[in-house]
Specification:
Length: 295
């Protein structure tokens, strides 16, 4: 599959993600107005978060693809991390508001009556159907293109199915048994999930902005490839960092100093291609040192 084809498929998945998220937000705004349900509000915030993430992913696909320039020698992919950090803060604030409303409603001496539960259930069921269809399509694209951005976006929507189920259960219980308090309990659970998700996103973005090393599995994979590569007598000083969906890798390899320059270059170039084949999201720089050979 060519790079252009991969880019088209990724952008198609990104566009579908934005369209579905916008539709879900519209449906849940209507459902919230009809039901006054906190669990629906939590699901709405989750969908609003997904819309932001999807827009960020689309922007990242375009912006991160820009070539390096004089002012940005390592490219522009750190914009993904800045956006993710802002998103995580927004999610934390939203989760706090939902949790406060849920606790306040549970402790309130008055009784809160939900309305139009059936309409809310139908709206959420439609939302979950759209979400499930998007998850299937994104899974297909991620398998074909190996896109980390599409795969990550898919995980967001996959996780959204759980709060949606909780909101449907709370509306059903309110309609059938008058258990209005369950709505607040579900909202608190959804708020907790939002906090966990936002902390995870924020930590990942912060680590990238602070030049934290890449995933240890990636480092181990690079070591495995370099350690068994023909003509490489050793390696050292592996340095890695992440920026958005990109991984930057530097490695020093030890070569026979008596061989022709062209041969040494070919060994390094072939090793770089092998690492990129395993980790296509990487930027790889290979330094060549003279090995101390014993005869």
């Amino acid at each position: 599959m060519t790079t252009d084809t991969n880019n088209r498929m990724n952008l198609t998945a990104g566009g579908a993600s934005v369209l579905v998220a916008l539709t879900l937000v519209s449906i849940k705004v209507w459902a919230l107005a009809q039901t006054s349900s906190l669990s629906v509000a939590a699901s709405l915030v989750d969908s609003a978060m997904d819309l932001m993430v999807s827009l960020g992913a689309m922007a990242a696909m375009f912006y991160a693809a820009k070539p390096a320039d004089e002012d940005h020698a390592f490219g522009h992919s750190s914009a993904e991390d800045l956006a993710a950090l802002g998103q995580s803060l927004f999610i934390l604030i939203s989760a706090a508001v939902i949790a406060w409303a849920g606790v306040n409603r549970l402790l309130s001496p008055g009784t809160v009556t939900l309305a139009s539960e059936t309409d809310g259930i139908l709206a959420l069921a439609l939302s979950m159907g759209l979400t499930a269809a998007l998850v299937v399509w994104q899974g297909y694209v991620a398998r074909k293109t190996k896109s980390k951005i599409v795969a990550a976006d898919r995980l967001h929507y996959l996780a959204d199915l759980i709060p949606g189920i909780g909101a449907i259960i709370s509306l059903w219980a309110s309609h059938e048994f008058g258990l209005m308090s369950l709505d607040s309990v579900v909202a608190l659970g959804a708020a907790a999930m939002l906090v966990v998700g936002s902390v995870k996103i924020g930590k990942s973005a912060w680590d990238a902005l602070m030049d934290r090393r890449a995933d240890p599995e990636i480092i181990a994979g690079v070591e495995r490839i370099a350690g068994s590569w023909p003509g490489v007598h050793g390696f050292h000083d592996i340095k890695t960092r992440t920026a958005g969906s990109r991984v930057f890798i530097q490695i020093h390899i030890e070569l026979d100093g008596n061989q022709p320059l062209r041969q040494a270059h070919d060994i390094g170039a072939a090793l770089r291609r092998a690492i990129l084949a395993e980790y296509p999201q990487a930027e790889v720089i290979i330094h060549k040192d003279v090995a101390r050979l014993t005869h």
